[in-house]
Specification:
202 residues; Rossmann fold; two-stranded antiparallel ribbon; 6 helices; binds 5-O-phosphono-beta-D-ribofuranosylamine
């Protein structure tokens, strides 16, 4: 079983997609869900599955950046998944878990990424660019926002989209397919970095 931690900040639909994916049931165990928001929807989903929730940040009962690496090591994790997590992961965590942290981004990187590019901001930028395709990207996490090597992408046609919200809806549907697919490939040891590229072997 692959031991996973999931980092979240919001409603948790990607977390739910992972938890409900039939092919992941025997492959992974989510041992903890971390969030910078103590009252997010994702925490309710985690708790309904009996998964431990941990709040990040400063203050009583929270895990500070300074303690995060030690905490994560104690879970003996095989993979960390950022699923709608809005903060940067501390650099010492990124270094220790090199190529073991993945993020889902709701656009086709390397376009429409970086600081401030989250949630509806991304889809508004895509809409205003008049792009005809958007999609979801799963990539390795490094010390910068949305810059790590791209592992997998799925496109959606947005040529007839009438609003950023409509793009968000279409992209979210493919996010829910793509993220579990990449986690499955990870659990099956099918992800490699070769020739400077991250690839999934079948
Ligand atoms: C998703 O669009 C994800 O790609 C982005 O934030 C959103 C989180 O949605 N980074 P949810 O919390 O998984 O529902």
């Amino acid at each position: 079983m692959l031991r996973l931690a999931v980092f979240v900040s919001g409603r948790g639909s990607n977390l739910k997609a992972i938890l409900e994916h039939p092919e992941l049931k025997n492959l992974i165990e989510i041992v903890a869900v971390f969030s910078d928001k103590s009252d997010c929807g994702a925490f309710q989903i985690a708790r309904s599955y009996g998964i431990e929730t941990r709040v990040l940040g400063k203050g009583e009962g929270r895990i500070s950046n300074e303690n995060l690496l030690e905490t994560l090591k104690n879970y003996k994790l095989n993979l960390i998944v950022l699923a709608g997590y809005l903060k940067l992961v501390p650099v010492e965590v990124v270094r220790e878990f090199e190529n073991l942290i993945i993020n889902i981004h709701p656009a086709l990187l390397p376009s429409f990424g970086g600081k401030g590019m989250y949630g509806i901001n991304v889809h508004t930028a895509v809409f205003n660019s008049s792009a005809k395709v958007s999609g979801a990207t799963v990539h390795f996490v490094d010390a910068e926002y949305d810059k790590g090597k791209i592992i997998a992408q799925k496109c959606v046609d947005i040529s007839d989209a009438k609003s950023p919200e409509e793009i968000a809806e279409r992209v979210l549907r493919v996010e829910h397919q793509l993220l579990p697919e990449v986690i499955k490939a990870f659990a099956e040891n099918r992800i490699f970095v070769e020739n400077n590229r991250a690839i999934i072997k079948s």
